[in-house]
Amino acid sequence: EPDAAPSGRLSGRTVVITAGGTREPLDPVRYLGNRSSGKQGIALALEAAAQGAEVTLITGIIDAELPPELPGNLTRQSVETAHQLQQAVLGAAEHADMLIMAAAVADFRPAEYAQAKIKKSEGGENPVITLERNPDILADLVRRRNSSGRGPGVIVGFAAETGDEGTDPLDLAQQKLLRKGCELLVFNRVGEDLVFGQDQTEVHILASFGAQGVLGEAEPVHVTGSKQEAASAVVARAAQ
Ligand code: CTP
Ligand code: CA
């Protein structure tokens, strides 16, 4: 049981956690963003620090409070865009034992950044925003690690899915776990009023085939409760 975990089970370990959403600028005053609050990622970072790990918390845009005094074994770095997040993760994860990607990374960014504020002109055409793909930080890192043998032994992804008619979001999460190649994937169902910014959450922690061998259990862990409770279950599972 996560609650029975001895404190300090991550002492001597280095953990990198990303939290919040990225923001992709369009012009000096506008951006593309998302509704991630960062609450879950912050809870994970505090939990890993409480378990004795040396933690780097990389935050994008967050809409949640960090404690005024961070634990001495937790360092925070702030970024804005997916590119900046990637650079920060690559730097921090090289010597880390564990990476937890709780950040909501923008899949696309505006293909062009306008140096001056985009103006509307009377009778002009409506502007069209062309997007281009951002790197997949998580999948790239798994690939690098698997080919070089260096990097975090435990990589945890997140998947927020709404599902749609005829698609079970849990199935989408299982497919995503295979696609990403990480050891664990934390799935939560999202909707306009579900999960984003809330204190309560419901998560399923799915393990890859390889991780299942280590964990010795095939059943995904299911937690309904506070983001703190979810964080403690995720960190306990990852520590295993
Ligand atoms: N992620 C990432 N880099 C991206 C997009 C996502 O590292 N450019 C990470 C997220 O931090 C998360 C996991 O990948 O841990 C899954 O993100 P998600 O958006 O659910 O997956 P995608 O592969 O982007 O698929 P989708 O088309 O469903 O958005
Ligand atoms: Ca995505």
Explain the overall architecture.
28% of the residues lie in helices and 26% in strands. With 240 residues, it is α/β, with parallel strands linked by helices. The chain has an 8-stranded mixed sheet, sandwiched between helices. The chain has a two-stranded antiparallel ribbon with strand order 2-3. It is globular and about 65 Å long. It starts with 13 loop residues before the first strand and ends with a helix. The site of cytidine-5'-triphosphate (CTP) has 14 residues, from helix 3 and strand 9.
Largest sheet: 8 strands, mixed
Low-confidence stretches: 1-6
Shape: globular
- Ligand names: cytidine-5'-triphosphate, calcium ion
- Taking all residues together, what is the mean pLDDT? 92
Strand order of the largest sheet: 5-4-1-6-9-10-11-12
H/I helix tally: 6
Keywords: Decarboxylase, Flavoprotein, FMN, Ligase, Lyase, Magnesium, Metal-binding, Multifunctional enzyme
Protein name: Coenzyme A biosynthesis bifunctional protein CoaBC
Catalytic activity: (R)-4'-phosphopantothenate + L-cysteine + CTP = N-[(R)-4-phosphopantothenoyl]-L-cysteine + CMP + diphosphate + H(+); N-[(R)-4-phosphopantothenoyl]-L-cysteine + H(+) = (R)-4'-phosphopantetheine + CO2
Binding site for CTP: 107, 117, 135-138, 158, 176, 180
